[in-house]
Design goal:
The complex is a heterodimer.
Chain A (H helix, E strand, L loop, with lengths): L24 E5 L9 H5 L21 H5 L5 E5 L1
Chain B lengths: L19 H13 L3 E5 L3 H6 L11 E3 L5 H14 L6 E7 H6 L2 H10 L4 E6 L39 H6 L5 E6 L3 H13 L4 E6 L3 H4 L6 H10 L5 E5 L2 E6 L7 H5 L10 H18 L2
Parallel strand pairs in B: 1-2, 1-3, 3-4, 4-6, 5-6
Antiparallel strand pairs in B: 5-7, 7-8
Helix pairs in contact in B: 1-7, 3-5
The complex binds thiamine diphosphate, iron/sulfur cluster (3 copies) and magnesium ion (MG).
Chain lengths: 80, 288
């Protein structure tokens, strides 16, 4: 395959860069309280909350959007 | 609304914590799906998602210059067509600078020629990637590094350029405004843009923690305040028919939006009043 300019051939390869190290505050999600509104999934800039509401701390930057947008306060930010 | 689970923007990207641009792109790609080619103009989105030799994109993606996303997306669309690949969606993402300023002519050309593509302007209201310089889409009163407030200046002294209406004036089949804080409204519009034959333009309002000056956790709240105060309007124009897609129950005073951001903190009551009057006038015209 001919490469023109700079070509990156591995889709989604930024996963090598674990941005979790940026975090100061860590979101802790209480599944008992969760009402399945999916706000946290939709609004996470990293897309690192899966459909079972597990947060991937390898990438979570600790922005706090999920906690802010959770209507039932099921997510708490804790200092690491 | 059924929201596809699959993600096409991988984590590990270098966006500031709480970046609104990445939220917007994630949501758009969910609707566009796998069979999509994306083009990005230079700007934050390109820089944060493709630190060589890595990429966050899980679909084919091309980085182009600051000024030619419209032209390159046109070329991609024609090339796919020539290959008989009529089922591939072509989407261009460009910032407000790349859209309202330097890329306006190439975008206008693409719209005029009637290519079957979607152009999404992610609008953070300044040149963020290069350190918060004003763009044509910077709102009145905002302090940026090239419209700084001080003794002689209250910040940006021109109103925000109305790009969606300039696009509508091209007579294209679909134009819409959107906000990352109203994801269903935005995603429905992306779906429509995908289904429509011909050019579609979506202007996506996207708060930026770094450039606007607010806590990263408030990105969605800021986008919401923009809409709830009437500072940003959600509408679509389908085949020439204008429709407001979201109406705040009760419009909040613009001040609550302005005071939540460092870029407007310096504003005197006189300027704030001017902004409120302007918003009132626009909302009265549109019956919001
Ligand atoms: C012709 C040209 N001039 C200037 C630049 C430097 N430059 C890179 S990105 C950028 C600003 C981008 O602003 P915008 O389109 O609003 O995107 P954002 O960074 O805000 O996402 C500028 C001025 C460039 N790359 N090319
Ligand atoms: S804190 Fe931010 S990055 Fe971490 S999971 Fe919540 S929304 Fe995502
Ligand atoms: S935002 Fe809160 S309630 Fe909604 S899905 Fe996430 S944890 Fe559950
Ligand atoms: S400067 Fe703004 S738009 Fe750019 S990556 Fe940071 S938060 Fe996102
Ligand atoms: Mg910008």
């Amino acid at each position: 395959m001919t490469s023109v300019g700079a070509t990156v051939k591995e889709p989604g390869s930024s996963v090598k860069n674990k941005t979790g190290s940026w975090r100061t505050f860590k979101p802790i999600l209480d599944k008992e309280k969760c009402i399945d509104c999916v706000n946290c999934i939709l609004f996470c800039p990293e897309g690192c909350i899966n459909k079972d509401y597990d947060i991937d701390y390898d990438y979570c930057k600790g922005c706090g959007i999920c906690a802010e947008e959770c209507p039932v306060e099921a997510i708490k930010m804790e200092r690491e | 609304m059924d929201i596809p689970e699959k993600e096409f923007l991988a984590p590990g990207h270098r966006a500031c914590a709480g970046c609104g641009a990445t939220i917007g792109v994630r949501l758009a790609l969910k609707m566009l799906g796998e069979n999509t080619v994306a083009v990005s103009a230079t700007g934050c989105l390109e820089v944060i998602t493709t630190p060589y030799p890595e990429t966050s994109w899980k679909i084919p993606w091309i980085h182009v210059a600051f000024e030619n996303a419209g032209a390159v997306a046109s070329g991609v669309e024609r090339a796919l067509k020539a290959q008989g690949k009529d089922d591939v969606t072509v989407v261009a993402f460009a910032g407000d600078g790349g859209t309202a300023d330097i890329g306006l002519q190439s975008l206008s050309g693409a719209m005029e020629r009637g290519h079957n593509l979607i152009y999404i302007c992610y609008d953070n209201e300044a040149y963020m990637n290069t350190g918060v310089q004003r763009s044509g889409a910077t709102p009145y009163g905002a302090s940026t590094t090239t419209s700084p407030h001080g003794k002689e200046s209250f910040g940006e002294n021109k109103p925000k350029k109305n790009i969606p209406m300039i696009m509508a004036a091209h007579g294209v089949p679909y134009v819409a405004t959107a906000s990352i804080s109203y994801p269903e409204d935005f995603m429905k519009k992306v779906q429509k843009a995908k289904e429509i034959e011909g050019p579609a333009y979506i202007h996506l309002h996207q708060p930026c923690t770094t450039g606007w000056g607010y806590d990263p956790s408030k990105t969605i709240e800021l986008g919401r305040l923009a809409v709830e105060t009437g500072s940003w309007l959600l509408y679509e124009i389908e085949e020439g028919e204008f429709k407001i897609t979201y109406r705040p129950l009760e419009r909040k005073p613009v001040n609550v939006y302005l005071e939540a951001q460092k870029r407007f903190k310096h504003l005197a009551d006189k300027e704030k009043e001017k902004i409120q009057n302007y918003v009132d006038q626009v909302c009265a015209e549109l019956k919001i």
